[in-house]
Design a protein that fits this description.
By secondary structure, this protein is mainly alpha-helical. It contains 16 helices and no strands. The termini are far apart. Keywords: Cell membrane, Membrane, Transmembrane, Transmembrane helix.
């Protein structure tokens, strides 16, 4: 009994420490995060197979909230239940939350956010995303039909660069995948070890919608800044599609006109959030601290991520059953192929366009890609190397 408990504890510690390392090194935004996750969780630790990982990405693309964070939480839940999901989230988000809270409390100027080493971290994101797309493409687009879906998906994503456009592209790919592959023999899927029940999943869905509709009403009853912040951040976390950059205008409309903080202070925090690893949703930590104090920052962070936990707890218990259905398998083949295309479009804009400005920048990307793809150099070493290279390029 003790041995079993110790093994479970060791697993929880491993989940947290691996996520923490990713939280310190995962620069470059949500698409880059998926590349870092794939390298760490799929290639190195074999916690999931490539197909299951792609299925989780597809699922999280449909859900509101920060898709890359939700993928990380999902992997934690598959590995260690709800507590495993929480530990994966805590490790991944804690470094940037602490950094942004300190930034707000110390009222540091944001001039260093545009430093050369930050530019170097943007360059490594190009290499990481390229490597991830190549690896996923080999497994998820093995025939001409799925390669075509990926290419058309990439073009459509660039033509309709909105969250709703992306959801429409995924739905169209699901329909095409079903039409093309509905008569194929059903594949045997690797069952994800989800340890919490469907009853708990239903309860999570009820709580998700209950909070979404009741918090604005209760806000009129409880005249409290903390309650108002919880309501605002929970609502934004529940309704935003498209990731961190979409959350910016939503939060700005909710907070600046209401006088919670100034436009200048809000934009300073957004700039600082670009210079830290991890998800952009940790901007909530800066905003809470800038409005009040570190306890208010923790309330804001908890509120904006809570919907993601409830949605995943509500969906994952049913995910194995959905994946095993023959019609769903055909649809998922199309969805997984188009996810490769969506990532390919994101590789160009915003990852490549925001990072590669000069031939020297492109040279750094090529070197970083070669070191990662062919020399198998650890990601953290490449991150350090490109940060140094970016600083050198800015000086020259």
């Amino acid at each position: 009994m003790l041995s079993k408990r110790r093994r479970k504890m060791n697993r929880y510690v491993e989940i947290f420490l691996v996520a923490l390392r990713l939280g310190f090194t995962s620069f470059g935004g949500p698409v880059a995060h998926l590349g870092y996750f794939r390298e760490e969780y799929i290639n190195r630790r074999k916690w999931l197979d490539e197909k299951s990982y792609a299925d989780l990405i597809a699922l999280c693309q449909f859900l509101p909230g920060p898709a890359s964070s939700q993928v990380g939480i999902s992997i934690g839940m598959v590995r260690g239940g709800i507590l495993g999901g929480f530990l994966a989230w805590l490790g991944f988000t804690m470094p940037s939350v602490i950094a942004l809270i300190v930034f707000a409390l110390v009222v540091t100027n944001v001039g260093g956010v545009d430093a050369g080493w930050i530019h170097g971290l943007k360059l490594v994101a190009v290499a990481v995303v390229t490597q991830a797309i190549l690896g996923m493409g080999k497994k998820l687009t093995p025939d001409r039909e799925r390669i075509t879906i990926a290419i058309v998906g990439a073009v459509a994503t660039l033509a309709f660069p909105t969250a709703w456009g992306q959801i429409g592209i995924i739905l169209a790919a699901a329909i095409i995948g079903y039409i093309l592959y509905r008569n194929e023999e059903k594949e045997e899927m690797i069952v994800l070890p989800i340890t919490f029940s469907k009853k708990l999943g239903i309860a999570a869905w009820v709580l998700f919608f209950g909070l979404l509709f009741s918090l604005p009403l209760l806000r009129n009853v409880f005249d409290s800044v903390a309650f108002a912040i919880f309501d605002i951040f929970y609502r934004v976390g529940s309704l935003v599609f498209g990731g961190g950059h979409v959350v910016l205008p939503m939060l700005e409309r909710e907070l600046v006109p209401a006088g919670f903080l100034s436009e200048e202070s809000f934009l300073a925090g957004y700039g600082a959030a670009q210079g830290v690893p991890g998800p952009l949703f940790t901007l909530s930590g800066y905003i809470g601290a800038a409005i009040g104090s570190w306890p208010l920052a923790l309330i804001a962070v908890a509120a904006i991520f809570l919907p993601s936990f409830l949605l995943l707890i509500g969906t994952l218990p049913f995910w194995n059953s959905i994946r095993e259905m023959s019609f769903a398998q055909g649809a998922l083949k199309g969805v997984n192929a188009v996810v490769v295309g969506i990532l390919l479009a994101a590789l160009y804009d915003p990852v490549f366009t925001s990072a590669v400005q000069t031939p020297a920048d492109f040279a750094v990307v090529v070197i970083a890609f070669g070191l990662a793809q062919f020399w198998k150099v650890p990601a953290w070493l490449i991150v350090i190397g490109t940060a140094v290279a970016g600083a050198i390029i800015s000086i020259i």
